Amino acid sequence: MNLLGWIILLSSWTTTLGLCIWFIVISLTHPEGGE
Amino acid sequence: MTKKARDSWTGRIGIILAVAGSAVGLGNLLRFPSVAAANGGGAFIIPYFVALILLGLPLCWIEWTLGRFGSQIHRGDAPGIFNNLGKGNPFLKYLGVLGLIGPLGIFFYYIYIESWTLAYCYLSITGNYRGITDPAEMNRYFAAFLTSPMRYVFFLVTFAANLLILLRGISGGIEKFCRISMPILLATGAVIAVKVMLLGHPVAEHPDWNVSNGFGFLWNPDFVKLKDPKVWLAAAGQIFFTLSIGMGVLMTYASYLKPRHDLTLSSTSAAFVNETVEVIIGASIVIPAAFCFFGPAGTQTAIEGGMFGLGFRTMPLIFNHTAGGAALSVIWFLLLFIAGITSSVSMLQPSITFIEEHLQVSKLKTVLFIGAICLVGANIAVFVNGAIDEMDFWFSSFGLPVFALIEVWIFLKCIGLDKGWNMLHEHAIIRIPLVFKYVLGFVTPVALGAILLSWFFSDGWRMMLMLDTPREQYPAVITVRVLYLGVLTLFLFLAARACRGQEAK
Description:
The complex is a heterodimer. Chain A is an all-alpha fold. Chain A has one helix spanning 3-29. Chain A starts with a helix and ends in a 6-residue tail after the last helix. The model of chain A has no long low-confidence stretch (mean pLDDT 90). The chains are: A mainly alpha, B mainly alpha.
């Protein structure tokens, strides 16, 4: 794999995984809305 | 008679996992890598993320907001929601019918393909295809499976499993099932992806057939491809397919939220769980694994064989060449089955909600009624050669973008951009950047219209007029079109009846 391929792979992975973890952590730590 | 309390999701994680389960399907694991590899590799990621930002996320938010409106009027089906939004316009409820028959029609063939994954899971456990190491022999094995009585048994088992989950309702069925199955899906996906990353170069005489070059096959960018409009269309199509947008499913699911539930965080979290499975797990399995065993030419041939070829012919062959392959093939088909079933149950929920709530029919009778319609449609997919492609055209390629455009139009016309934006942010835990309000109001409808028009003028009209259809496919094409019209007529009639009853009250 060439350098550009690595850059695209790593930036895509860190963006999606980073945002996914960030959103899930907020979801888990924030209290549920009630009725 | 006292009115029964409406079912609802029990918690935020439950709805996130259920929506992510609906979105994560066979397309994430099989379709995304083959579409990306065929459309510029790493360069494909650019139009893919552009489509996610301009189309995918805004359409998700619109569907969730329409669902919030539905929860306020105790309606979760598109005809009911559109009818209430378009007071004075009796035709909107009929447009909502497209949000019922789209996912229902996709279910007709999706359930059959899903049943293959369960059957192959069983065949992997029994070691039935363990000795096959030759691609031609594996092709024959798969062809023989598709004509065997056994595939029908597994179809019926998968069909019954779907109905049983739906019979248990939103919180007791879909949510409970997704709370258990989605972590299993993520774990099995990660196990297979890590195993592929550790393959090294399994064919000793070809040291260049290694994992690094396998990832390069998928990720090395070919920027010249970005000049081709078809690449941008393919990216938009993949975003549509992967996020379950234009199906009415997100609207129905969101209608079961409690009044003070947040929309922005839940919708965005579910979308990014789906993206993680697609871009990380989906991109790390089939293409790099195929490259390590079959090299660039063999991988290209496997991609041209389609996503089912990759899943049911290429992957079993790879496992037969791999240490611990027996266990891995069980895990692989279990992964595909979970991805499939969490999606397929969601496809029936809009029509179940419609019949149950709008026509006041019991859950059991509703599930049996919808099950009977699906059994007719699915049997056409099973027994009529070529029917799956025609169903995919009408219910998915045509139906989803058309219904998405209707949703955007109704959102902007009946709710309005300002009010809709505020409704999306009621009880919101995170705020969506303001720029998206204008994307949602102006860019998304224009982009959607442009995609529909370019699709129609490139392939759509030729398919509709059967200009490229081989003569031997005519019976399948006509059967599916009669089925489509039959289902459409039935639901138009039911929508008219349901809304008449509602107005009379």
